[in-house]
Amino acid sequence: MKCENCTKKECSNKQRNEDRQNTPADVLNSNDENEEKSEFHKLANAKIFLSDCLACDNCITSDEAVRVFQQNQKELFHVLNLNKKCDTSKHKVLAVSICPQSLPYFAAKFSLTVTEAAQRLCGFLKSLGVHYVFDTTIAADFSILESQKEFVQRYRHQNQEEHAIPMFASACPGWIQYAERVLSSLVTPHICTAKSPQQIMGSLVKGYFARQQNLSPDKIFHIIVAPCYDKKLEALREDFHTPLYNSQDVDCVLTSGEVFQIMEQSKVSLREIAEVAFDTLFDGVKEAELIRHDGRKSDGYLEHIFKYAAKELFDTEVKDVVYKALKNKDFQEVTLEKDGETVLRFAAAYGFRNIQNMVLKLKKGKCSYHFIEVLACPGGCLNGKGQAQTEDGKPDKALLRQMEDVYATVPVRLPETNRQVQKLYQEWLDGMDSMKVQESLHTKYSTEKPAANNLDIKW
């Protein structure tokens, strides 16, 4: 990260402006836009109604609103510009981690395969000055493995522990925000404690990878590219902050649509970009093949946990999971029968209409499910509002169908078969049942409703 095309004299002339750039601000306003000029300074801020994603009246504080608003493309270019200056003490290693559900968006937009889109997106980001580009699938491997272990433990102790069953999935930040801020202790004890793939990736990059590169975590600026805006709120959580280094595990979240905006502003098409393989967390190794998990529109928690639980609890091999649609296509169930008895009953509840119906059943003591995969977006993660929207904010159904088609072509791999994950359990976490596993891969949820200063905002 050497200083590019500047001299000591020029840096001195720029020092006053640089100091202004690094002055903390309580809120991003129109004056801030003039402090760091580049061809990207006119990028639009993401807009989405809170009622569209979280569907409640008490979800976000004024401080959170400001910090969410500040997570945009300007953050990326602010770091890129600092890396071009002579003061190396302010340089950052830029690492971008891309969610697998974002890649079909770029594939559909540019008529590419998912692998082509991934490698050209990697090439585009590196052409901007990003140092490392990772795939978050390895983090989803950890999250799924920890979730399925926890489910089996909860199932076995359901008669001793009041809140063991049902277990709710924990990967969707919109759902978690709603559960903590609105439902509180009614639901939070039922939520799986495994971190989401985003935040496990944060632990990997700021923990394992930083150590491998002999870097302090605060010297890495970690960006996640994700399909929805709720991921921005998740990155702000206090439990994903390292006080020793004053560093968040994830520094900034950009939606797929925001990255596409950067391409539009720079007049670049992915079809024109050379393909570059993803980096991995291991030195000298490139990501050879793009893979995904079982699950049509998400990371497939339901399918993986169902198959694992059937084998561990009832010694039953399940090859194909058969969904039964209930009230609508976003509310489906899966069951396992043994000796004429239903021993496992799982549900997929997508969208807040189905989530609220599920919670109502729990409140009345009529929830018969053992596990519920909860996603805030109807249609699942591919339909995240950061990528599957038209310009007027409506769902882009044609684009979503294309995304589903290309996503289905990506090969599936079981988390258990990932050798790198097994290696990381030993090298990074001191084994599969260590205290480090709990510290790095699990979290806790609030059981008290905070008094939020509600804002009628768009983000």
UniProtKB/TrEMBL annotation:
Residues 393-449 form the Iron hydrogenase small subunit domain. Pfam families: Fe_hyd_lg_C, Fe_hyd_SSU. SMART domains: Fe_hyd_SSU. It comes from the Eukaryota. Residues 1-21 have a biased composition (Basic and acidic residues). GO terms for cellular component: lamin filament; nucleolus; nucleoplasm. Residues 1-34 are annotated as: Disordered. Residues 22-31 have a biased composition (Polar residues). GO terms for molecular function: lamin binding. Belongs to the NARF family. This is Nuclear prelamin A recognition factor. It comes from Podarcis muralis. The lineage of its organism: Eukaryota, Metazoa, Chordata, Craniata, Vertebrata.
